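Support request from a user on the community tier.

User writes: "When I paste my structure tokens into the form, the page sometimes reloads and wipes my input. The last time it worked, I copied everything first. Here is what I submitted, just in case something in the input itself triggers the reload:"
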């Protein structure tokens, strides 16, 4: 191993996990490590795992074995949700002969201790995250954990109860991140519960208001429950001039009340529908996405038809559709009436096709209108991301990090925008 070990990071799972990887990276760099762009040039691999399904765990183990075969010299350290969900999962990873170290959860200091060549000393894990090394847009994690008890979810068990970061700490970190990133994505495990555990309590809307007042950047909400979007948040979506991006990702999971009860979700079909329609009416042009699980135990043709009909009615612009996948240790893993894989796959295709069509229809309504565009990617391979979460081909020279307003045009079945000569703002 070199005097300054080169560390390659691989992250499975959600934006919160990606943020946690950035925290680990920052701590390791502070102690003398270098970040490698790929495993070919690394001395150490840190793998941040996801435990949402059995397959997610299997994917991490597969990567570990592949890395060991290809890079015999590599020190492999595994962390993340898979290591924190159950003791049995931690032990199973620890017993893999290809693994050199296992850290329960996402503790940067604990990961650093698995790299003996790094400088010792007190951890600085409470220091603000200064940059996101992996993209133009940066993640801003405002809370961790979840107090809900969805029957299919292992993440809330691995992450524990909802814990909110103090608002002043978040604002300070956002101000630093905004020096390098034109857009900050507000993320967590359950951001709709932000601030309930603080004294005095702070709502997500109040936090966003502070961020908009004190930090010069475009902000975007990550996944948030539709029934937890209060009127103050809607006001900001309408009144901020696009600085709180007109884009919501609101997990649906199912459009059937019977399936929602089996999932132990807290919203009903009617409550979700009513809130989404009310928000859409106020905001107008808006990116609207949802997570949907198909083939959940007990979902019959009638229940799937209810989901399909609700998706058809609501103004979604994209969908994330997942065939149900078992996660051992969750309540859902014990439910009867499993849906055959081919049936779940067919339902998944039907919803994805519907989501694709709705997305294309929405794009057509935006042609000829102005959009706030942030450029992301790498030099030579860049694209624009609008406030309402459309991917836009750029005509003209632009570099990652540029932000500008431009008219949208239709081009070869996609959207395009011309880059102004003075692009960066």
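"...and here is what came back when it finally went through:"
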């Amino acid at each position: 191993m070199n005097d300054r070990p080169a560390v390659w990071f691989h992250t499975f799972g959600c934006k919160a996990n990606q943020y946690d990887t950035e925290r680990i990276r920052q701590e390791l760099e502070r102690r003398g490590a270098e970040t490698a762009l790929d495993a070919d040039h690394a001395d150490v691999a840190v793998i941040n795992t996801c435990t949402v399904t059995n397959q997610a765990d299997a994917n991490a183990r597969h990567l570990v074995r592949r890395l060991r075969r290809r890079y015999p010299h590599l020190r492999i350290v595994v962390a993340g949700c898979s290591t924190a969900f159950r003791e049995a999962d931690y032990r199973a990873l620890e017993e893999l002969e290809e693994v050199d170290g296992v850290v329960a959860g996402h503790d940067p200091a604990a990961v650093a201790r698995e790299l003996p060549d790094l400088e010792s000393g007190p951890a600085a894990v409470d220091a603000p995250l200064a940059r996101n090394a992996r993209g133009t847009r940066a993640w801003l994690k405002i809370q961790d954990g979840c107090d809900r008890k969805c029957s299919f979810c292992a993440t809330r068990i691995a992450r524990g109860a909802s814990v909110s970061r103090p608002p002043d700490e978040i604002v300070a970190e956002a101000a630093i991140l905004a020096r390098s990133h034109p857009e900050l994505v507000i993320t967590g495990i359950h951001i709709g519960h932000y601030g309930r555990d603080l004294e005095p309590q702070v709502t997500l809307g109040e936090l966003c208001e502070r961020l908009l007042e004190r930090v010069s950047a475009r902000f975007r909400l990550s996944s948030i429950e539709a029934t937890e979007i209060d009127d103050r948040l809607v006001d900001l979506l309408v009144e901020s001039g696009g600085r709180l991006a007109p884009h919501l990702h609101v997990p649906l999971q199912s459009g059937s009340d019977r399936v929602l009860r089996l999932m132990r979700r807290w919203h009903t079909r009617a409550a979700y529908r009513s809130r989404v329609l009310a928000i859409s009416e106020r905001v107008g042009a808006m990116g609207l996405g949802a997570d949907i699980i198909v083939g959940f135990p007990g979902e019959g043709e009638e229940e799937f038809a209810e989901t399909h009909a609700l998706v058809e009615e609501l103004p979604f612009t994209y969908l994330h559709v997942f065939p149900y996948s078992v996660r051992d240790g969750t309540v859902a893993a014990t439910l009867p009436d499993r849906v055959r894989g081919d049936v779940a796959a067919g339902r998944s295709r039907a919803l994805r096709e519907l989501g694709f069509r709705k997305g294309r229809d929405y794009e057509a309504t935006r042609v000829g209108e102005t959009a706030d565009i942030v450029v992301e990617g790498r030099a030579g391979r860049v694209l624009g991301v609008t406030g309402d979460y459309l991917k836009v081909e750029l005509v003209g020279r632009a570099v990652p990090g540029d932000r500008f307003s431009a008219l949208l045009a239709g081009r070869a079945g996609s959207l395009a925008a011309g880059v102004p000569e003075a692009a960066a703002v």
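Agent notes: The reload is a front-end session timeout and is unrelated to the input. Residues 137-239 form a domain with the Transcription Regulator spoIIAA fold (CATH 3.30.750.210). The chain has four domains: 6-113, 137-239, 246-366, 370-418. Escalated to web team.
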